[in-house]
Amino acid sequence: MLRAPVESRVLANGVELALWEWPGQGRPVFFYHGTGFHARIWDQVIAHFPGRRCFALDARGHGRSSKPAPPYVWRNFGADVAAVATSLGLSGAIGVGHSLGGHAVTLGAALTAASARGPAAFSALLLLDPVIRSPDQYVGPSKRAQYVAKRRNRWRSPEEMVENFSDRSPFDAWDRGVLRDYCQYGLAPAGENYILACPPEIEASVYEASPAMESNIYAEIATIAVPVHVIRAGRFRDHANAMGASPTAPDLAARFAYGADTLLTEHLHFIPMESPQRVAKFVMDLDALL
User: Fold this and answer.
1) Would the pTM count as exceeding 0.85?
2) Does residue 119 register a pLDDT over 80?
3) CA-wise closest residue to 95 among 27, 195, 142
4) Looking at the DSSP assignment, which residues form a beta bridge with residue 55?
């Protein structure tokens, strides 16, 4: 059976964030999700860590966190990680981030290390197909993501959402437990129906800001002095499924002082959703190095 987490609220940079904690012992693991998802997308990964203290954060605009109006600046997500880590008094944690979350935990780790007077908040990072682009791709906001604002926002139930997505790309490649968690915790009650916990207009705003010049964090990457394992997706479902393509700079790992790179040719961008057990193994391997 899955462990039930404890939900709390953390005020970070003027925004109230939902934080989920799985109480336990040992080196903490801090999880951060990608755009349009939520903290409970990690439940099936965390199930492989019985007795380990784990945290997962609902990003601003997502899940049960507050939803300020757009625009959404990517550096704010990293600043939120740093604020929450400081609030928790994290020390030596493993930071795990997927997609937007990879960008956020990287920046958050750099910010906490720069301000720390004692042990660093993070002792290692696992970046799962992070949205950290090649430097020449940070040229300004993208308007191509506006189609995201048109996605279906109202559902009769989480079960209807699961049934609708089960045989559709990219969800048909997901672990069934992860898909159920995505739908169950990715909807918010709205009268007799449900709406997305990350409103489409917010999701679109996050995607738009991804290639903005202020999203470039290579100066901060150069300051990170802990082991970093970059996992890149190498599989493409089809040209219509652009969301499945990897956004990660191919040489990203080499930009870190202690970076390692793994290319998973059999996975789309949604690595934690497709194989939570494999992601858990990556965390365990990184933990064993420390």
Assistant:
1) yes
2) no
3) 27
4) 21, 30
Which of helix, strand or coil describes residue 47?
coil
Q: Is CATH 3.40.50.300 what the domain over 6-137+209-289 is classified as, yes or no?
A: no
Share of the chain above pLDDT 90, in %: 89
Which has the closest alpha carbon to 273: 141, 114, 165? 165
Question: Can you tell me the distance from the alpha carbon of 102 to that of 108, in angstroms, rounded to the nearest whole number?
Answer: 10
Beta strands in 107-251 (DSSP E): 122-128, 154-155, 187-190, 193-196, 228-233
Percent of the chain with pLDDT over 70: 96
For 161-170, how does the pLDDT look when each residue is reduced to its tens digit (9 = 90+)? 999 999 999 9
273 and 182 Cβ atoms separated by less than 8 Å = yes
Report d(CA 118, CA 100) in Å as an integer: 28
Q: Which residues of 134-160 are buried (b: 16+ CB within 10 A; e: fewer)?
A: eeeebeebeeebeebbeeebebeebee
Q: Which pLDDT score is estimated for 2?
A: 77
